[in-house]
Write a structure and sequence with these properties.
By secondary structure, this protein is mainly beta. It is about 5% helix and about 55% strand. The protein folds into 2 domains: about 1-130 and about 350-465, Immunoglobulin-like (Sandwich); about 250-350, Sandwich (Immunoglobulin-like). The longest helix has 18 residues, at about 1-20.
């Protein structure tokens, strides 16, 4: 009776064993899941996926690419289609968001490893979010205020390339309503992090309000990422003026990444025959807007000579996300007369302070007795150096180190290397840990970026060929 029972039990177990052929695992692959987090449109963030041959013979592989461009790409590999016995090579997988709508991008691929009759297939999945634009263009709304009939006043619209690759601006033409435009310095391709400006002008030919609109387009190098930035122009034609002509009286800088800046110029002209006193024009402490002291021939911080035109560099430096607005006023005076000119400013703070990517990593299954690692890159996307790096530590069996300097220059990068060491003590179930990375700059910005790591140690000698 007992013998029959044992035979029956073996027959029951033999069914699934025959249906599922087990074989030695060929390669450790990881990370198998990557969340790049928020990445600015047109910018590229990269993670290295490690392939480690666990056997004593060469393993060949195929696949691992993407069909079409959904924001992710793989460019080259030192592995060249095969991995030597016991060797490790890495494949760079990247994200480059095609727009900054805030939508989530997803894609997946599969790598197939072969050694003789043995095959191992590993699925890789990637996600990330496109945020902010590839360029700063602004101001986007310009109100010239009251301008004397037949006089011409201009305001500059700046285009600033935020990436390390060239960017081509175009468009910006406008006519009608007394408005016109000139290419200014935007006559060719902008180099990495370069800037240029368009001149938007208003020459009223009739009394009353006037308006016009245009758009400036941008395009990056391949894979091409395009942008479209509408520009709105307003003004009022008058036949009498007060002491001063000031423009613009209202402007919207559009979207600017937190910690960065965009500027334009506010100008005022003394239309009288005597010197004027100048006061005001500043913003309060903690404002995201800044006006510098007036400059120009015949100008000082407190006076403007008769007939002179003064220029005030006006900056938008967002300290928070979302819509931001403020106002100020210039007071011009002489004996017996004065003129108060209010200025309204606005803009949108977008993105994050600095870029830390990727933000979530799953190293997948790692064989006991081996380890795996990859890097998280910190890029200073602010206008000032960052320092005071904090955090990034993890507990065993995860590991962490970094090469970040005391001070990280503008547009420079450093790396945190995170790893996992598999042992029999931590085998059997996925492990997850979290850490955070923080730094600060002279604007007082101190972001906190959270990193999540997952890995699973395994001590099985055999597996079914799929992960």
């Amino acid at each position: 009776m007992r013998v029959c029972y044992l035979l029956s039990l073996l027959m029951v177990l033999a069914g699934p064993l025959q249906a599922q052929v087990f074989q030695p695992k060929l390669v450790n692959v990881g990370p198998v899941f990557v969340d790049f987090g928020p990445v600015r449109t047109g910018a590229t963030a990269t993670v290295q996926v490690s392939l480690r041959n666990l056997t004593g013979s060469t393993v060949t592989y195929a696949g691992g690419g993407f069909s079409g461009f959904q924001g992710f790409f793989v460019f080259g590999s030192p592995c060249a289609g095969s991995i030597a016995p016991g060797a490790t090579c890495t494949v760079p997988y990247s994200i480059r968001p095609p727009d900054g709508s805030g939508s989530t991008l997803n894609d997946a691929t599969q790598i197939q490893f072969t050694q003789g009759a043995q095959v191992q297939s590993v699925n890789l999945s990637f996600t990330g979010t496109g945020t902010a634009a590839a360029a700063h263009v602004g101001p986007r709304v310009i109100n010239f205020g009251e301008q004397l009939l037949g006089s011409t006043r201009s305001v500059r619209v700046y285009v600033r390339n935020l990436d390390s690759t060239p960017l081509s601006p175009g468009g910006g033409g406008v006519s009608g309503g007394g408005f016109s435009s000139g290419a200014g310095t935007c006559t060719g391709t902008l180099p990495a992090y370069g800037s240029c400006y368009y001149d938007m002008s208003f020459t009223p030919s009739q009394l009353g309000a006037a308006s016009a609109s245009t758009a400036i387009g941008t395009q990056t190098d391949a894979p091409a990422v395009t942008g479209n930035f509408p520009i709105s122009l307003q003004g009022v034609g008058v036949d009498t003026v007060n002491l001063v002509s000031l423009r613009p009286v209202a402007l919207d800088f559009g979207s600017v990444v937190i910690g960065d800046e965009l500027r334009t110029e506010v100008q005022f002209t003394n239309l009288g025959a005597t010197q004027l006193n100048v006061a005001g024009g500043g913003f309060g402490f903690g404002s995201s807007f800044l006006n510098q002291a007036p400059t120009g021939n015949g100008c000082s911080s407190s006076t403007v000579n008769a007939g002179s035109t003064c220029t005030v560099n006006s900056f938008f430096r967002p300290l928070t996300t979302g819509a931001i607005s403020d106002s100020t006023a210039f007071l011009f005076s002489r004996t017996g007369a004065s003129q108060n000119v209010p200025i309204n400013v606005s803009g949108i703070g977008a993105g994050e302070v600095g870029r830390v990517s990727p933000r979530r990593l799953n190293f997948g299954q790692v064989r006991v007795g081996t380890s795996i690692s990859t890097q998280v890159t910190v890029t200073n996307t602010t206008r000032l150096p960052v320092s005071g790096f904090l955090g990034g530590s993890v507990g065993s069996p995860f590991t962490a180190s970094n090469n970040c300097p005391t001070t990280l220059a503008v547009n420079a990068s450093c790396q945190y290397t995170f790893g996992f060491t598999a042992s029999s003590a931590n085998a059997g179930a996925p492990l997850t840990t979290m850490t955070s990375i923080s730094f600060s700059n002279a604007d007082g910005l101190q972001p906190v970026h959270t990193i999540e790591l997952t890995a699973e140690a395994y001590d099985r000698l055999f597996f079914d060929g799929f992960e």
